[in-house]
Structure formats: C-alpha cells, structure tokens
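Re: that chain you flagged

S.,

Sorry for the slow reply, it's been a week of failed gels. I finally had a moment to sit down with the sequence you sent. For the record, here it is as I used it:
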Amino acid sequence: MVSKKEREILMKKGLFGMVMLLSLMLVLSACGTSRVEPKEAGEITVNSIVYNKDTDKVKDVYGEDGADFEKEFEKSFKESFISTFTASFSSDVNIDKEVDTFYNALRKQVNEKTSYTTKVTNDDKESPEIQFAVKGLNMKGIQTELTEELTKAVTADPSIAMDDEKMAKKTMEIYTKAVQNADAVSESKNITLKLTVNSKDDSLWKMENDMAFMQELTTAFFLGGMQ
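Prediction finished late last night. Pasting the structure tokens below so you have them in one place:
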C-alpha cells in the first residue's frame, strides 16, 4: 500500500511533469507562429534585392525563394531601362548586350559603394514599419559625365549623331564606363517598408507597400542624386 508521503511525492512528480509538458507545448506553439523580427526581416529584404545576399533567409520571412527576388528585380530593371532608353530614338535599336554589361557594372558598384542603416519606426506586432537611410550611387554626376563625353564623341565622329544604333551603343559604352567610377551620395534618403502578417500563414510576413517600396528602393540605391 502506498503511504501518504509517497502519494505526495508521486503527485508532485506528476504535477511537475504536467508543467514541463505544458511549457514544451507553449514553446513549440510559439515556434510555429513566430515571425522574423521586423528589423532583421527588413535587412534580409534589402540585402537579397540590392546586394544578392541573405537570399537563403527570404523563405523564413516571406515563404518565397530568395533567388526569385534577384531574378525578378534584374528582369524588371532591364525591361524598364530599355523601354525608357529606346523611347528617345526614332527607330528601333538593339542594346540588350550593352544593357547586360551596364547592369553588371552597376550592380558591382552598388555592392562596393552604397550603404544603409535600419531602424524600426513602428513596432506594431502585426503591422510594423522599418525605415532605411540609404546612401545610394550618385548617378547625378554620372549624367553630367555622360553628356560631356557623348558630346566629345559626336564632335569627333559626326556620323554617330546620324545613326540611332551607333548613338545608342556609344551612349551605353560611355554610361557603363562612367558608372564604374561612381561613388555614393553624401546625404542619405529615407525609405519605408511596411509589413503585415501573411493571412495564409501567420509565421510569415507580407509586404504591404511592395510596389511603392520597390520603386523607392531602386531609386535610392541605383539612382542616387536623381530624386
């Protein structure tokens, strides 16, 4: 027969076991719904898009493949650049290869020269806002250099001005060379990322202002001084 003291010991052990089990269940439950901290989520977002870093962490933030961020950004950037650039010519020009070279040079310079700092400006648990102070590539100075060098090239060879294809390729040649010497702007530009809980999976975030943020991000890092 079990004594009173032995029953008390068994009850204590049982209660302790229940407490431990409940604690474990709470921890596991928290792990299932915990989201990446807003500041870290913001930095992963910028790093993956701008610097092609932390792409393996994007899935933890948004549930998406980080490599797709870079691919989509490159595709959108090139399409937008070509569309804007070729619109200034009266005839069709093919600058796909030149834009590839320019893009690679631009990305390299952005990786080496630009920087940013991060702070959470709204720490709401479900709708946080993260602000980035960005010192992007100074493209205003590049535009000035482009104009000067293109004028010299046309003066030396007037036929360039008479041929859209020649003009387009010469412009891209000068542009690519100039961007390789670009430095960062001295004053930072603030941009804000707004996050919200993913309605389909509350362990993930979703960009609330994705279109506006991507546009501001591109301008801040890649077109510094042009705002």
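What I noticed first: Strands lie at 115-122, 129-135, 189-197, 205-207.

Talk soon,
D.
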